[in-house]
């Protein structure tokens, strides 16, 4: 007989697996309505996930146990792996009929909101499969486990530990409501509302209703999947691009700010947020620099055209969305490298963006500046501030450790990719695009990852989960001390 702790973990994973069966309901409904060949694939996968989840949950449904943080790390990591495995099945059973390696990559990319793909020929896929791909972005944007905490409070197994294990950024313990389930619900309501607004805006700007809904699901989630191989070049419509820029920025902002601003009917939370100020300045500076490179490099005639392309791609990469206007890897000068580097910063903490997050990068820079001042004035007392308030030494040290481990993981992934035989530029870009949940890269992965060797595809799949969970929950499981108890 397993200890109660492990039986409750089985209960949670069973409930999460059963919840993941709902992934297949919308595309199954559309497939039935359009009489597409994908009906059987979605129906079989739905039944498989639901029955397996029920089999895990039912025998231990009455058990109660308060989970610890270490249990939250375990559940979160394995929930993402389990959900990705189940989500990969339709890609193998129906068109595009991918092999296991590519199908798993596609599912992981969708759920981690990376937006990288191994599929060439999106325009010819059944509509139900296209909707399914986009919906994976939607579910992964706010997080599978966070969704469970929001709608399955009856689990009563330490929702705070699951929330802390999956939430992004240094402010993981911030509660918007007295109960953690209430916080999760509040975030999901904001997220759902923004998706509806985004879909309506795309529709009004010129997309058909299907494309508008699909792209809304991947825009607010800062994910990057598209229903067309050409991404936003398919429309060549400035109004559609403006809508995308606005909602990519919205997705890159702390969702706690969105909730507080909506709840109090005021813009004050945005105006007072230091991280948002730096995020905005960074987006403007990157746009200006890239527009200048495009204009002076002769890639695009006219400053207005250069600004249009630069603004879209800078915001897309900074928020780690990964939508594209053409192949930015062919742009002149430093523009391609700068766009890849922006993804390392990412959006705000508490957003759907990947990367290290603006707050952490700002803190790390200020900590570096403090060390320089301390060398010049050894007896001086200097502190790190954010928003006019002192940041505790514990958080400063935690941020420094995170940034160090994050970059070490990136280098490890890049070295592992070079060991599979791909060139250095592709290895650098693929590692950066995967761990930052960006999507498009440079070299061989500038358009899609379909030409990479299978080993490299698996490495990138692992890196996407590592980046989405912000390295610690995964690395904790690799520590021998975690398993000693």
Describe this protein's structure:
Helix 10 crosses helix 13. With 485 residues, the protein is an all-alpha fold. Strand 1 (385-386) and strand 2 (389-390) form a beta hairpin. The two termini are 17 Å apart. A two-stranded antiparallel ribbon has the order 1-2. It is built from 22 helices and 2 strands. It is globular and about 65 Å long. It is 64% helix and 1% strand. The model is unreliable at 154-160 (pLDDT under 50).
Descriptive labels:
1% strand, 485 residues, globular, mainly alpha, single chain, 2 strands, two-stranded antiparallel sheet
As a whole number of angstroms, the C-alpha radius of gyration is 22 Å
Major β-sheet annotation: 2 strands, antiparallel
Helix content: 55-70%
How much of the sequence lies in strands comes to: under 5%
Derived structural class: mainly alpha
**Lateral strand order in the biggest sheet:** 1-2
Quantity of strands, as a count: 2
Span from first to last CA? 17 Å
Mean pLDDT: 88
Helix and strand element order = HHHHHHHHHHHHHHHHHHEEHHHH
What is the number of helices? Answer: 22
- How is the quaternary structure best described? single chain
Low-confidence stretches: 154-160
From the spread of the alpha carbons, the general shape counts as globular
List the helices and strands and how they pair.
Elements: H1 4-20, H2 25-34, H3 39-57, H4 69-87, H5 89-93, H6 100-111, H7 127-142, H8 144-151, H9 159-166, H10 180-205, H11 209-219, H12 238-251, H13 255-264, H14 268-272, H15 274-296, H16 303-318, H17 335-345, H18 358-376, E1 385-386, E2 389-390, H19 393-419, H20 424-435, H21 454-468, H22 472-478
Antiparallel strand pairs: 1-2
Helix pairs in contact: 1-3, 1-4, 2-3, 2-7, 4-6, 4-9, 4-22, 6-7, 6-21, 7-11, 8-10, 10-11, 10-12, 10-13, 12-16, 15-16, 15-17, 16-17, 18-19, 19-20, 19-21, 20-21
